[in-house]
Amino acid sequence: MRFRNFLSSIRSRITLRLAIILAVVFGVAVPSAILVPYHLSTIESAARIRNNEDHNRLVDILSVILSEPLWQITPEIANISSEVVYSDPRVAKIEVITLPDRKEFIKNDVHMQNQVGPFTSMVREIKHGGQVIGEVKLTLAEDLLRESLRSDFRRYVTTAVLSLFLAIVFILMVLQWRLVKPVRLLMDESDRLANGELNAPITLNREDELGHLATSLEVTRQALKRSFGELEIKNQQLLEYSGTLESKVRQRTQELESVNRNLEAALHNVNTAQSELARVERMAALGSMVAGVAHELNTPLGNCLLVASTLEEETRQLLKMVEDNQIRRSDLTRYATTALDSSKLLLRGLQQSAHLVGDFKQVAVDQSSAQRRTFGLKVTLQELSALLHSSLRKTPFTLELDIPDDIQLNSYPGLLGQVFTNLVNNSVIHGLEGRNHGVMHCTAVKQGEFVLIIFTDDGKGIPPEIINRIFEPFFTTKFGQGGSGLGLSITFNIITNVLGGTIHVTSKPDQGSRFEIRLPLVAPGDPDSNDPLLTEH
């Protein structure tokens, strides 16, 4: 009985405003207490799944790009190739061992010294020609994942508390505007009618119970003074409508300003992501080129090694005959002939290697640094063609250049080389796929202060329904088959945003594709800029 009396006492003291506030507090707090942990658990699960997928993808990439350096036993190239993956701040350690002797090949654990963990590791076999030649072990730290989860928890808790606070404030405002104030007004009007004051009208434009009550009071007042009451109602309605209209205009203006700020932020994020994608694509192409050059150097250097060992053996035999006093003129003549032939072979192989290394050195500097300089178009494209020869040699396709000697550009040879490489790869992967022969042809014509570069192939062409979409980011006909859809998109952005040119493509089914690139001889922008991809255009 006392408990019931206590509850009755509390209920009698709770006002309508307090009851609604308590209902909102419990209505928002209880679902938040249930949903926030659920959302956080869902976000954590999704983040760990993404982290695991990234872990698998990175270790798969390492097993592929380290195959050739491990086969050639070149730790320096392996370290350079693995930097593409090790640049990820989540990567703690990369270990590579050779099989079957299980000797350490490379090990990079610089990041691990500054990471807390915990750490997860994955191991992949490294194969070359179907043969397992080693293992790569990639260790990731969960520092960034845990920091992201803590940030999500703080954000959700802050959102819940802020939502509760704003709901209470908003309800107080609504109660004051839509309930407390109208009730007080009706009470005053009722007192005024009871006192016989009929000059002021009773106006409450609402369709709920309070509105009906106000209407009843107004009908009572109008029965006494109808003519004056109708005029006052119309004037009051006009004033209220004007105030509501101004409030709506201000609200719409604030919403448009907020949308504009969000759009500007989104555009900035897109430009930043685009620049980062271009840099990653350029470094990936350079890593692939490193593997190709290493493979190309293997043949001439191997020949030189064989010739040098043969010459050493011949020299040892000659010295033995001299010491035994058994040397003859014919032996000396044969040795001289062998030494001359060996020297020619050594010179030819070393010259070939030096030429290839020189070409690669210039191209690597250009593509890794995006430096601006004056260069000859023909020499630059010839250097790139020589480096692409290792990959094209494995295909039935050929690349032909017809570039005049006198075309000089003050531009970015590394970015232009990336455009050329992307066009060649696009033709090989898409245009000439499945064919037993094919020709790619690149020509250039100087047109005043511009140069027109035309790249064509005799492949299967581009279907009319997709030709207008080939420059869109992430659009590819090889989705799920290794195609990223970024090659031609990055090519378009480099030409239009950095090199200051235009690109146009035409194609007919089974008649190949034609890319026309028009570039200024002097690229726009600041000549002292270190990386034009980071410059806003």
Please provide a written account of the structure:
The strands form three sheets. Strands 6-8-9-11-10 form a five-stranded mixed β-sheet, covered by helices on one side. It is elongated. With 537 residues, the chain is α+β, with helices and mostly antiparallel strands. It starts with a helix and ends in a 17-residue tail after the last strand. The longest helix has 115 residues. Helix 6 runs antiparallel to helix 7. The protein is built from ten helices and eleven strands. About 1% of the residues have low confidence. Pfam families: HAMP, HATPase_c.
Keywords:
537 residues; alpha+beta; five-stranded mixed sheet; 10 helices; 11 strands; 62% helix
Topology:
Layout: H1 2-13, H2 16-65, H3 67-72, H4 75-86, E1 91-98, E2 103-108, E3 119-128, E4 131-141, H5 143-194, H6 209-323, H7 329-369, E5 373-376, H8 377-392, E6 397-402, E7 408-411, H9 413-431, E8 438-447, E9 450-457, H10 487-498, E10 502-507, E11 513-520
Parallel strand pairs: 6-8
Antiparallel strand pairs: 1-2, 1-4, 3-4, 5-7, 8-9, 9-11, 10-11
Helix pairs in contact: 2-4, 2-5, 4-6, 5-6, 6-7, 6-8, 7-8, 7-9, 8-9, 9-10
- Major sheet size, sense and barrel closure: 5 strands, mixed
Alpha-carbon distance between the two ends: 79 Å
Q: Give the H and E element order.
A: HHHHEEEEHHHEHEEHEEHEE
Categorize the overall geometry: elongated
Residue stretches low in confidence (pLDDT < 50, at least 5 long) are 365-369
Report the helical percentage: 55-70%
The fraction of residues in strands falls at 15-25%
Number of helices: 10
Neighbour order of strands in the largest sheet: 6-8-9-11-10
The overall strand count is 11
EC number: 2.7.13.3
Subcellular location: Membrane
Protein name: histidine kinase
Keywords: Coiled coil, Kinase, Membrane, Phosphoprotein, Transferase, Transmembrane, Transmembrane helix
